[in-house]
Amino acid sequence: MISLRSTMMILGSIAFQSVAFAEEPVSFRREVMAVLSRSGCNAGACHGNLNGKGGFKLTLRGEDPAIDIDTITREVFGRRVDVCNPAESLLLRKASGGSHHEGSVRFSTDSREYDILSRWIRAGCPDDSPTLPALKSLRVTPTQKILSDSENEVKIAVEARFADGSVRDVSGLATYDTSNVGIASIGTDGKATRLQFGEVLVLVRYMHMQSPVSLAFLPPQPDFVWKNQPTDNEIDRLLYAQWKSLQLTPSALSDDSIFFRRLFLDTLGILPSADEVSAFLADRSPDKRNRAIALVLERPEFSDYWAQKWADLLHNEEKSLDRKGVRVFHQWIRNAIDSRMPLNEFARQIVAGRGSSYSSPPANFYRAIREPYERSEAVAQIFLGVRLSCAKCHNHPFDRWTQTDYHEFASFFVQLDYRILENKRRDALDKHEFVGEQIVLIDRDKQMLHPRTGRPSVPRFLDSAVGVPPDGPDRLTRLADWVARPDNPFFARAQVNRIWYHLMGRGLVEPNDDFRVSNPPMNAPLLDWLTREFVDREFDLRHLVGTILRSRAWQLSSRPGRPKGEDETHFSHAIVQTLEAEQLLDGFSSVLDVPLKFGGYPEGMRSGRLPAPQQQARRSGKGPSPESFLRVFGKPERLMNCDCERTEDTGLMQAFQLINGDTLQSMLTAPDNRIGTMIRSGRTNSQMIENLWMSALSRHPTPTEAAKLDAFVSRSPDRRKAMEDVVWGLLNSKEFLLRR
Question: How many CB atoms lie within 10 A of CB 447?
Answer without folding.
Answer: 12
